[in-house]
Structures are given as C-alpha cells and as structure tokens.
Input
Amino acid sequence: MPVLPLVPLPASVRPGSDAFRLRDGAGDDLERAGVRFERADDGAPESYRIVVDEASALVTAPDDAGLFYGRQTLRRLVDSDERGAFLPALEIDDAPRFAYRGAMLDVARHFFPLDVICGYIDRIAALKLNHLHLHLTDDQGWRIALSSRPELAVRASGSAALGDEGGFYSAEDYAAIVAYAADRFVTIVPEIDVPSHTHAIGLAYPELAADPVLADSVRETVREFGGDLPERGRPYTGFAVGFSSLRTDDERTYDFVADVFGELARMTPGPFLHLGGDEALGTERADYDAFIRRTVAIIAATGKRPIAWHEAGAVPDLPALLVAQYWGYVSDAGDAGGAARAVAEAGGSVILSPADAIYLDMKPEGAAPVGLVWADGPTSVAASYDWDPADTVPGLGESSILGVEAALWTETVRTAADIDFLAFPRIAAAAEIAWSPRSLDGAAGSRSWESFRERVGALGPHWAAEGIAFHRSSEIPWADA
Ligand code: TNX
Output
C-alpha cells in the first residue's frame, strides 16, 4: 500500500484487497459517489469506523462528530487511476486520545476578517481539531463589540501591532463565526486577557487602567523590535508584554469584568471562557492572586468553565473547575510545571501548549520572513512533533490532561498567507499528538516521526489544492501533485 495521507494517524488501519470504485461525476459528494454514512448504536464520543471493500464503502459512528471525522479521513483516501476514482480497501477504527484538541489564533495583535477565520476553521477541522481559541484582546487592540461596554469597540479597536489597521467583530460576526465553527464540530473559546495585556481597555475606560510599568524587559523589547514605549491613553503598537494592568483595587474593575464575561457567556454556546492571566508583570502578586480568584468566581457564576494561562495556577485556593493552559517548555517544565500541577492537584485539568514545540509563531527556520524565536526557536517540524503530553510536566498524569492546543500569536503575522506559512505543517504535528495513540516505542499502529513525515509529505498536494500556503520544510518528503 502506498503512503496514505492520513494526519492525524488513525488508531487502527488494516489494509484490504480490492478497491471500491466511486461512481463517476460525483465530485466531492461522497454519498452520491456511493459511500454510506450510518449511525452506530455505541462507541466512544467522536469515534468512527470505516470499512471499504470491493462492494461497498461504509462509515459508522455513534455521533455526528464521528461521522464528520470519518468523512475527513475518507476525503484524504480518495485516489484515482486509469479506471477513475476509487477508495482503497481497508478497515479503520479511530477515536481521539484527548477530548480537547485546539488551535489558538491571536486576533488582537493583528485583526483578521471573517473569511480568514472561517478558512482557519476549515483547516483545523480537517485535522480533527475541535476547539478554536480566539485571543480577542491585548495591549494592541480590543476585537469584539459588547453592548454592555460599547466604548471598547469604538475607542480600543482601531490599532494593531506594527501600526497596522485594527478592526473588531460585531455581535453578528461573532455569531457567524460560532455557527460556522459548530457546523465543523469546532467549539469557539473566547479569551479576554486580564489583568495584564489590557492597555487597549484604558483607551476606552481610562479609569480602569493602571499606568504602564516600564520594567527593564519592556525597554529591552522596544530596543530589539522598535516602536515607542507604551504610554497611557495612546494606542500601543509594539511587541512588549506585561506592562499593563487593570486597577485591581477598584470595584469598577470588577463591574467591568462581570459585564464583559457575562455578555460573552451569553454570546458563546461552548462551555469555556478564557481569562488570560499571563505575564502580569505590572500587577503586585497579592493583587494578582485576589483578582484571579474573583474573576474565576465571576466566570463560574455565568455557568462557564474558566480557562487561564498557567500563571494563574500558582494562585492559592482556586476552585477545582479551573483549566490551566501550560505554555512552558517540553525541555524543562520548571515553575510553569508547578503551576500546572497545582491546578491538577486541586482537581482541575490542563491544556498543553508547550512553547518550544507548538507555539506556531516561532520561526520554522532562521531565514523565515515572519515569526519570533524566544521559545528556543527556530522550531523545526521534528521538534513540534517529538514530544508527548504525558511526559511534558513531571507528575502531571494523562487523566489530568484535557488536551493539546497549538498557539499562533500574531505580532509579526499580517496576512492569511503568513498564518498558513507559520501554522503548516507544524499544526499537523499538534493535531496528531492530540488525536493519535502515543508512540509505544515504535509499536505498529502508533505514531512516530518517520511515519508522520511521510504522511505529511503525501498530504502536501491536498493542501496545495485547498490553497493552503504551507511552508515547504526541507524536513518533509513532499509528494508531487
Ligand atoms: C508570550 S504565551 C505571550 C504572548 C506573546 C507571545 C509571543 C503567553 C501566554 N503570552 O503575549 O504574544 O509570547 O510568542
């Protein structure tokens, strides 16, 4: 059997003998081409089974998501020869390793219009990712219109990194994104980053913002990347982080937090609201702890489950429902690991986004025209693949891991082509790690780098046909179209 372009690798693939010939002229319509899709009585959530032989092609699944994933797999299997289109004979039994398989897109540093977001949803859904985390706010801009706080969209959305144009999603835009995603079994996870990364909020509601704290690290970033130092009341367009803070000692701040997360909860059908909580370098430790505890409680009161970057995990006495998003390293978990572990020990769970592996904004190679390098970058495709969630944070077992998320920050990312270049092919590594059974020392049917690079190479022509401007990494044996 030739290399099948299947990423993520299904849990089990058994080749058969005679191909199923697809009915002519059906194009992408698998049903019209003769494939049957049927509900199974039981099976794990999102699982599916495919049986193809000479006489029939049948997909069965216990739920609609499973049927959708079976369809994604079949789309990759359609092949053709001199007799026309066919599906190779095989049996596939497949189910995800983790329930949460995510991608994060930062629409705050740069704003991306609806068509780009929908294109990204198509791309991630084809890789069987099922959550899109939108980083909706940061120092450089606020990207969502809220009727409870109308000044945000009016005064805080016009700017972006590098002095580029900003923008925001109206309530209708956001509803359209949620619906488009839901049709592809993708849940939107909105993030409002507090108490830091909040400079833009001060443009709309100055009374809520503390003065920027110009630590040495902020001056250093400005020296390295240029731009102005952050200044109260002026849009910020540079790359520095951690200088801004909400006024954590002012009750008006908590009214704001309740308005914003309350409205977002009503606009968001998914179970999660992300409160950021990262890099609050300008917030005193005790103030940070108290702020996070109150914000977590405010979100819990909306009925949603709070997610925060791992820093929040170090806050004492957090409720068990918190999800921590780990962005430390694979190579050394250090304090970040401790914070993630604390959340697990309190009964919460962890999403793994190790920065030295699946921060997609790290340059894929030194000469890349976009991207950053701070997380031990450049990050090769092999480095993005060669890790396992259960081995990343010592003491953090598989049962405490909700899943895996590949993050794309957009300080340097201005276009849809930039997104594709940085995300592909490394996002496929994250998708496989999130979905496929872990490598058991190369055991048959488990994932391995050697098999992955061949399968990604075989996917290249599919991506090209779909208009994905992927990075033609020299690590991958790309197939010709
Ligand atoms: C760190 S990772 C950040 C972001 C930056 C990113 C750039 C994290 C939770 N915060 O604010 O955009 O680095 O790679």
The chain has a mean pLDDT of 96. The chain has 14 helices and 18 strands. The first helix runs from residue 64 to 77.
